[in-house]
Structure formats: structure tokens, C-alpha cells
Amino acid sequence: MKITIIGTGYVGLVTGACLAEIGNDVFCLDVDQRKIDILNSGGVPIHEPGLQEMIARTRAHGRITFSTDVKASVEHGDVQFIAVGTPPDEDGSADLQYVLEAARNIGRYSNGFKVIVDKSTVPVGTAERVRAVVASELEARGLAVGMTHGFSVVSNPEFLKEGAAVDDFMRPDRIVIGIDDDAAGQIAREKMKRLYAPFNRNHERTLYMDVRSAEFTKYAANAMLATRISFMNEMSNLADRVGADIEQVRRGIGSDPRIGYHFLYAGVGYGGSCFPKDVQALVRTAGENGQNLRILEAVEAVNHDQKEVLVEKIVKRLGADLTGRTFAVWGLAFKPNTDDMREAPSRRLIAALLARGAHVRAYDPVAIEEARRVFALDFADAPEALARLAFVTTQDETLVGADALVIVTEWKEFKSPDFAHLKSVLKTPVIFDGRNLYEPLAMAELGIDYYAIGRPYVQ
Ligand code: NAD
């Protein structure tokens, strides 16, 4: 099938590459010339396991193209995926300007029947706004909306996880498709069915529903996941106070199948481009509809405070003034296997350490370049503080002479370091672990002062 993907970010690029991998003819459009240049010179602008190889393969077979040519992109695809960003507006609602611009372009250059697929995460009712924009552009061109220049707007939210995006797209738990119950909707349904057939070979994973329910499903899913995280974080803070071990509690409750083990880890709060903005947007949607989402308001507030918990532990141990102290920081990306720094807890933590006068030496396996960029922006007005932040290229380099190690992201390579070596190169053997990677008792036996989240301190 001929597919156009609008937006070559984490979602668009993975969607485009995976659909090309199974044989489709994919045209990827972006307005960002830099990204398109990188892609056309054989690079990949983001880190996502397996993506580079897949793009190289499909390019070699001529099944994927990257361009900034809007007209050519609209003319190419019978199916047009909108996968542009929907960042939070100042009031927390989703900013739809990029989605509506993509819709405008489709109406402006449409050359036949188009299935327009909202893959971006968009609030309930957005498909109707996309429909109105496309129809008005077609009308401005003097084209009556019929079957020749017709279109149908489909909601097909994406559930992939950064860091495992290719795998998630290729082996989805479910495919949600919201479709209108009219003649154009029927055509769209057939096309979507054909497009996703290879993903449904063993058993049907597609859930067809009305458009509004599909739009809502994405927000409800992220809201539920964010709720589990904030719940466990709040439990971990109580565990700290009452002397319980949140890791044992996690195993104790996860074994109940009604609860399950997934997404039950206490830590330094959720980040990334999705949970924070989607929770905010849903709270906003509820407000506009006369309802308070009290649980989600609390989920957000708990998450905000949780990003300070590690700093509080550091201050309790080392004092409020950290001038002259040096911290080794392991992990910058908001989670492992990605270079995404959006809302990453490391940003708040490092900012707090710098604000208290500390020096920071930070390492991340893939996010250093992106971290350098975002910290330069975050600290544009504070060059003196920024000068106290150094990025180094190995885990080991962070440690030499540091007053403590702080772990922010649970990369696999941080899970089993050489503790004897670590202890010998740190100035003082102290670890503040925001991801509960180690056993408190084992750390005590090694003579390491170990502070985790919701786990007892063992002397
Ligand atoms: P992103 O910021 O990585 O990428 C968006 C891309 O769209 C950018 O490259 C931008 O230049 C491009 N763009 C903007 N306007 C454009 C236009 N008019 N025409 C062509 N390109 C345009 O965003 P992302 O992380 O891929 O997220 C995209 C959407 O998918 C968001 O709504 C997000 O909430 C949702 N989503 C993201 C994830 C994730 O893990 N990142 C998962 C599921 C859903």
C-alpha cells in the first residue's frame, strides 16, 4: 500500500519503518530539514533499538523515502498518518497546531480519496476538527467532498514504548482503530484492515470502536499507568517512614493477578514526552467538561514531588549547602534504551544539585548529546551553574574523586558494577539510588552507604 507518514519523530519514524519493513511503499515527511538530511544521509536522528538497521534495509529496497516536500507527500499516500507532536500548551491542554497544519496540507493537496489517520495522541473530538479543516480546504479548492475527493478520519492511537518501540509496533498487544460508521468510514475500515492484517495473523488484535472512544482510550491507558507509578511512589515514601521495604511489598502485591507485576516500581517519578503531558491534557479535558479528575490531579502532584525525593535524601546526608561537593550521576534519559530527555527526572535532580553549589559529572550510554542540548537551554541564563556540569564518556570517569554516586536511570549496564572498584575510586563510598538497583544488605556488607527509594538503610 502507499502510505504517507507526517512527522518523523519517535512515533512517525518507527511507524514508517515498520510499515515499510512489511512491504508497503512509505513516504515520510517532516518540516525539520535537519532530520530529513540526517535520514537521507543514512543516519537516524533518534536512538531506538533496531530502527537504524530497519531503515537501512527498507531504503536499500526502495520502500521508504524521506522528504520535506508537502505536496508530494500528500499525493503519495492513500493512507496519511498524522504522527506530529502534540506538546502541552501553557494551560496543560494538548497543542493541536501541528496536527491541524498537517490536516490543512492534506486538504490543500489531496488528489483522491484519503484515509487520514490520527496517530498522534489527541484529545477527544480532534478527529472532528481535522475533518472540518480538510473539508474547508477542499471547498476552498472548489472540490465537493464526495468519493473522488473524499476522505475519512480514523483514530489509531499508538501504544509503543520508547526503547522498545520497534518490537512494540511489530508485536502489538492491541491495535485500536476508531472509525466512523458511514460510507467513507467503510472504505477506511477496509484499508486499515488490509494494512494491519500482517499484525493479526495469529489472532485478531484489532479493536474497532467509535472515533471518540479510540481517542479517549489512549489517554485512559497512560493515565492508568501514571497512576500506578504515583501510587507506588507514595507507598515507597510511607515505607521509608514506617521502616518497610517497598521491594518486598512490590513482590507481595504483584503476585496478585488482579494487580500484576508490571509498572509497580518505585523511583524518582515518571518523565518522558507522554505521561506528564497526557495526564495534564486529560485533567484539562475534564475541566472543560465540568468534571474534576481528582485522582489524576493527585497523580500529577505526587509525581512532581517525587522528583525531589532523591535530593531530599542527599541533603539529609550531606547538608543543604553542597558547595565543593562532586556528584557522579548515572543515567540522563527519562528511561533506558532511549535518548529522550523530555521531562527526564535527571533534569530536576541535576538542576537541584547545581543550585546548591555542587559539581556534577554525568554519564548516559546514549543521551549525552541530547542532554548537552537540553541543559544548555535550561541553563541559558545561568552559565556559572552550567560550567559545574560535565558530561563524560564512561561510567567510570564520573566516579573518580566524587563524594557520592547518584543513579537516575535504570540502564542494564548499571545493574552490576564492580563495587570494590567503585568504592576505591569514590572519595566517600555513598550511593543514592533512584531506581532501587541494589540490595541494601549487600551494600552494607561491602561498606557502602546506600540510600534507595522506600528501602531501609542498613548500617
Ligand atoms: P516528536 O516530537 O519526536 O516528533 C514529531 C515530529 O513531527 C517532529 O519531527 C516535527 O518536526 C514533525 N512535524 C511537526 N509538524 C509537522 C508538519 N506539519 N508536517 C510534518 N512534520 C511535522 O514526537 P513523538 O514523540 O513521535 O510523538 C508524536 C505523537 O505521538 C505525540 O502526539 C505523542 O503524544 C504520541 N505518542 C508518542 C509516543 C512516544 O513514546 N514518543 C508514544 C505514543 C504516542
TrEMBL record:
GO terms, molecular function: NAD binding; UDP-glucose 6-dehydrogenase activity
Annotated metabolic or biological route of this protein: Nucleotide-sugar biosynthesis; UDP-alpha-D-glucuronate biosynthesis; UDP-alpha-D-glucuronate from UDP-alpha-D-glucose: step 1/1
Chain sites annotated for binding substrate: 159-162, 218, 263-267, 271, 335
Catalytic site positions: 274
Amino-acid positions noted as binding NAD(+) in the UniProt annotation, renumbered to this chain: 30, 35, 86, 121, 162, 277, 342
Keyword NADP: no
Protein's GO biological process: polysaccharide biosynthetic process; UDP-glucuronate biosynthetic process
Keywords, comma-separated and alphabetical: NAD, Oxidoreductase
Entry function: Catalyzes the conversion of UDP-glucose into UDP-glucuronate, one of the precursors of teichuronic acid.
Family per similarity comment: Belongs to the UDP-glucose/GDP-mannose dehydrogenase family.
Designated name of the protein: UDP-glucose 6-dehydrogenase
Organism in which the protein naturally occurs: Trinickia dabaoshanensis
